[in-house]
Amino acid sequence: MLYLLALTSATLYGAADFLGGVASKRLSTTLVVAISQAVGLVVLLGAITLLPPAEPTGTDLAYGAAAGLAGTVGVGLLYRALAIGVMGVVAPITAVCAVAIPVLFSVVRGDRPAPLVIAGIGIALVAIVLVSQQPSGAAADLRRSRRLPPGVPHALASGVAIGVFFVALSQARPEAGLWPLVGARAAAVPICVAAGLLGGASLRGVARRTAVIASAAGVTDMSANVLYLLASQLGSLPVAVTLSSLYPASTVVLARIVLGERLHRMQMVGMACALVAVLCIVLGGAR
């Protein structure tokens, strides 16, 4: 059951990223995040009613709220990156950074990184370089402008923010159940709505299809969060994290099937390196 839940959460995480990226191509990222976060909160509250009672403390909810602030920034940046960049390039970069941050946090706390972790970080750096490669003509234009490929800066920042989300959420006690996620969304939704209003975003005139896609992203993302937490509580946390971290594969497959995105040979090698790096970092950090 652990493996099924974790693998399903990875599939749903990747699908949520894809849906959020597609919606952000048609609507402002701020509004997409606001819709997805609000819908996700409704789904979460419904899920909690089906689970045994938990015992969250104020500290657990505070960690959840901190995670929610970081996660909102991370998701917003990720959706923007997916909207303006190549999904098959953006998703692995974000995944590598998101896994590396918790590892660095552990190192700062005094944990000694395993050789596998060091190898994973090195592979991650190689992966970022490879997946950032562009066709010869586009690469020449980028060298002249001295800019990274579209979406890559957003993906890097997104990965850092999502990594902070994982660190903050991990500080909550297991006895809190899913309530830290409630704290996360409760903190995130008002900020998303306020940001949308300040940015002049409005639901008026939003195409129904786009609203449905953004809502589906929220439902899928929260479902993935719930499945991941359940998987981590059922058995080995390292196994759950490792399997759930394979979500870029889902995003890439959907982008290839639905959008017809094509990756160059070096980018495909970079994607493979990114997945290997995620596995190395998580498995090595699980000592």
Would you give an account of this structure?
By secondary structure, this protein is mainly alpha-helical. It has one domain (2-284). Helix content is 79%, strand content 0%. The protein contains 12 helices and no strands. The chain has helices at 2-26, 29-48, 58-84, 87-108, 115-131, 136-145, 152-170, 179-198, 208-234, 237-244, 247-259, 265-284. The radius of gyration is 18 Å and the shape is globular.
Strand content: under 5%
Order of helices and strands: HHHHHHHHHHHH
Query: How many β-strand runs?
Result: 0
Q: Main β-sheet, in a few words?
A: none
- Average pLDDT figure: 81
What oligomeric state do the depicted chains represent? single chain
Poorly predicted tracts of residues: none
Domain count: the total is: 1
Terminal Cα span: 23 Å
Query: How helix-rich are the residues, as a percent range?
Result: over 70%
Task: Give the overall silhouette.
Answer: globular
Task: Give the number of helices.
Answer: 12
Rg over CA atoms, rounded to whole Å, is: 18 Å
Structural class: mainly alpha
